[in-house]
Amino acid sequence: MLKKITQLQFVKTLCLVFLGLLLTSPAMAQDKPEIKIGGALRFNYNMSSWKDGQKKRGGDFGYDVFRVNAKGAYKGILMNAEYRLYSPGFGGGMLKQGWLGYNLNEQDQIQLGLTQVPFGIQQYNSHNWFFNMTYYVGLEDDHDMGFKYMHTGEKFEYQLAFFKNAEELRFGSNSEISPNRYSYDIAGRNKEVNQFNGKIIYKFGKESASRLGASVEYGGLYNLDTEEMGNHSAFAVHYELNRGKWNVKAQFITAFNNPENASGESRDVVSMAAYGFPYEVASDFNMYTLGISRNVPVEWGPVTNLQFYNDFGFMEKKAAGFTDSYMNTTGFLISAGNVYTYIDYAAGYNHSWLGGNFVDDFAQGNPDAKWEARFNVNVGYYF
To answer: What SS3 state is found at 5?
Structure first.
């Protein structure tokens, strides 16, 4: 009982601190409300090595997503939201992000709502349309419900955050999270709760602009069956380099999930969900990723730039008998005015979205699996 009261008091304190900052910080107000609307419409062509029918008909071309972005500001209060409409087979409509913010000064900002989790290389630990393997285990471009403080200095950047939970759409006493979400989160009979994040970046170099950083994450895993609180944690070291037309992203992550599952249920795996589907992920793993890109400016009618890249990911699972997972994506991005086209060749080994067994490729895996690949072209108009 004491533990529950302490957690409730802590959440109330965070809310009071947030409101206090809004009321006592110097105003940076606009006389008139400001609103900016943007978005994107994207189409996708793909042909997959594990789909015989698709190969025989030369692949498929169809709708990917329509999204709307809205940014607002009035009397110092900021708003940022992005809503996406996928096909029903990929989760339908979902809010990617949606938060209220306030600039304390030119270097410090606070955000409240569905905001990006400060962990690893951001905004993306990848260059391609598929992201890197970090995304598929909830550690790239993740968004949760909570409070975040950000400082951006000349040499150092740091962020501190508390997230009450992942996106909650059902609000039942014992309801599982909905899989109709953009970010991958713990699903099934466990829920992410009371998560703390911290991240620091040291910036150095001029011709070779470098960002060296570390991130930490720790939170609870509440089990709906046992009503016990487990925990999850992750630690990352990361480095990003920009030199001329080159960009390099390198990252190492170690992650642990310790659910308090019901008797007889494995604790070596956890369920995760996004885009309408759940799958299993190894509870404990190391992950290594490396991405390299180079821009090539051109003058081909509306085409102004080509970005060539390769992104690699390796997931080392710690449970005995589990088979590791790999992902490699080679491709290029064509920039032509407001139209951006990703042309990718994504290959995976024990990768849920790249052939094999969708349910447990990121968990137990299959030692007899073979590499599968998907050729993908994504065309988007961004406005």
So the answer is: helix
Burial label for 370, CB within 10 Å (0-12, 13-18, 19+), is exposed
| Residue 76 tokens, joined | 């110092």
At 149 the three-state DSSP class reads strand
**What is the residue type of 347?**
A
Q: At a CB cut-off of 8 Å and minimum separation 6, what does 313 contact?
A: 132, 133, 134, 287, 288, 289, 326, 327, 328
Please classify residue 84 by burial: count the beta carbons closer than 10 Å to its beta carbon, then call 0-12 exposed, 13-18 middle and 19+ buried.
buried
The pairing of strands 60-74 and 269-274 is unpaired
Name the one residue in this structure whose structure tokens are 């990252």: 251
Owner of token pair 């905004």: 123
What stretches of the chain show up as alpha helix (H) in DSSP? 2-24, 52-56
Quickly count: other Cβ atoms within 10 Å of residue 44's Cβ: 17
How long is the chain?
A: 383
Instruction: Number of helices (H) and strands (E) in the chain: give both, helices first.
Output: 2, 19
Tens of pLDDT along the chain (383 residues) come to: 344 445 556 555 555 555 555 555 444 456 789 999 999 999 999 999 999 999 999 999 999 999 999 999 999 999 999 999 999 999 999 999 999 999 999 999 999 999 999 999 999 999 999 999 999 999 999 999 999 999 999 999 999 999 999 999 889 889 999 999 999 999 999 999 999 999 999 999 999 999 999 999 999 999 999 999 999 999 999 999 999 999 999 999 999 999 999 999 999 999 999 999 999 999 999 999 999 999 999 999 999 999 999 999 999 999 999 999 999 999 999 999 999 999 999 999 999 999 989 999 999 999 999 999 999 999 999 99
Helix (H) or strand (E) holding 43: strand 34-48
Q: Residue 229 is encoded by which pair of tokens?
A: 């609180």
> Could you tell me the two tokens for 235?
């630690």
Nearest to 179 by CA among 91, 93, 257: 91
The rounded distance, in Å, linking the Cα atoms of 303 and 306 is 8
Q: Are 315 and 326 in contact (CB under 8 A)?
A: yes
Rounded CA-CA distance 70/249 in Å is 29
